[in-house]
Amino acid sequence: MAIVQKYKTQDVAAPILEESKGSELKLKVDDYVTPPAMQFSNNGGIELAKSENDAGLLEPEKQGMSAAEYNPDLDRAPNKEHVLEEEQASAFDNADGDSEYEEVEVDDDDEVDDIFALGVSDAPKTKIIRVKKNRPKVQEAKPASETTVKDRDVPATLTDNWDDAEGYYRISLGEKIGEGGRYHVFANLGRGMFSAVVRARDTQQNDKEVAIKVIRSQESMYKAGMKEISILQKLANLDPDDRRHLVRLLGYFEHRNHLCMVFESLHMNLREVVRRFGNDVGLNLRAVRAYAHQIFLALALMRKAEIMHADLKPDNILVNESKTAIKVCDLGSASSISEMEITPYLVSRFYRAPEIILGLPYDCALDMWSIGCTLFELFTGRILFPGKSNNHMLMLMQELKGKFTTKQIRKGRFSGMHFDDQNAFISRERDRATGSDVLKKIANFNPVQAGTDLRSRLLPPQAIKGMSQHDLRLTNSFIDLLSRTLELDPARRITPVQALQHPLFSG
């Protein structure tokens, strides 16, 4: 019989968080009051679109790639460096007695990172994933007892062929799945590497709309799905009143040998919000501030649980219909800190923290880096680090923040691919004419002098003229917070709780 976990959902204020010794988190629910300055309202409250005098509007073409037109192909495209780095990562794994891995490219059309939201990009997508070589023979997951042919309003001739050749379930619109045919499927949202996702109506909840993730019928996929369920349940147990802005797992069941995960349904992600309200120029800073506060609440809970999301970006942050509240979603890449494994390809490249690329140990600080990149996108409408490779990413990071420390370089597993013996950075670019790599040695980076630091990008002198003193203070505060989330050294990077206590949210 299917096991369905039900959680309460309440529209309540989020608690204040304090960090004590040992990085423990204390919740002070009774003391919390949502800052009025960060409340959306339907009566002319926080606007999503920028005004003419807002910062971040000048010369957007010089600020990099458009966030609204983000294409996962560019973010995950393989290259020579990719192969070389993976050889080193594989050697590292084998030296420790672990399984050998390889990077493979798969179709990523309507991937689950934003599959709960309608109106996804029509651009073709691919994804680079890291999988074990020589995996054992795939086995089917054990079917749930309630998923019999009686539960389905489909012709009996289909019962002998429920799956396609790749193990995806052949779902039919109008089909009823779950215990007693509880969920009535009415829309296909597409498929990713590990699952297909559909929209359905919950007949036991007044036809409430839900999103159902149908995992492929393979043992490895089933185990991955159960791991995601375990993480979601752990987080939900720490947040019983649904105050912490993490997507809710409403339940799960098995249907025809497929694990099915039921989620609350949300219709838009933050990339789509930027595309609609701030294409190429970004959103109003007050809206960005409100979203940031909610995101940090979610990350504070994850840090308390010692869970890394490992794939944060605008696509994986959903918004409600009124655009006033967000939910962090897609924990398919999430894992415990104790499962940390050195690999240069964790997290989508544009949002990948430097410690991942260098091959250093990592923890929840990698998510703060990803959110720093995300907040920059929300405010400017441009991607902060549109690197073509890990090497290019490191160069862009140093152009913004200065050179890595000698300690980071020397301890990095993959540093030798990007730095010489004197710790000078070696930029590697492809010559378009010859197709060969061109190496360039860069001994130092001076972002302020070069005008590539955050303040020069977000608050150039000409932008200050039309700003009020209040807006200027707010923008300066935002730049300071952003800079702290983008510390090259994860040990110096701001934590979610520290971010919630930043003046940006109290001014």
UniProtKB/TrEMBL annotation:
Binding site for ATP: 213
Keywords of this entry: ATP-binding, Kinase, Nucleotide-binding, Serine/threonine-protein kinase, Transferase
Domain Protein kinase positions: 183-505
Family matches, as Pfam families: Pkinase
Classification via Gene3D superfamilies: Phosphorylase Kinase, domain 1 (3.30.200.20), Transferase(Phosphotransferase) domain 1 (1.10.510.10)
Domain of life: Eukaryota
One biological process term in Gene Ontology: mRNA cis splicing, via spliceosome
Region Disordered, annotated ranges: 51-75
Gene Ontology MF term list: ATP binding; protein serine/threonine kinase activity
EC number: 2.7.11.1
Family: Belongs to the protein kinase superfamily. CMGC Ser/Thr protein kinase family.
Protein name: non-specific serine/threonine protein kinase
Naturally occurring in which organism (per UniProt): Meira miltonrushii
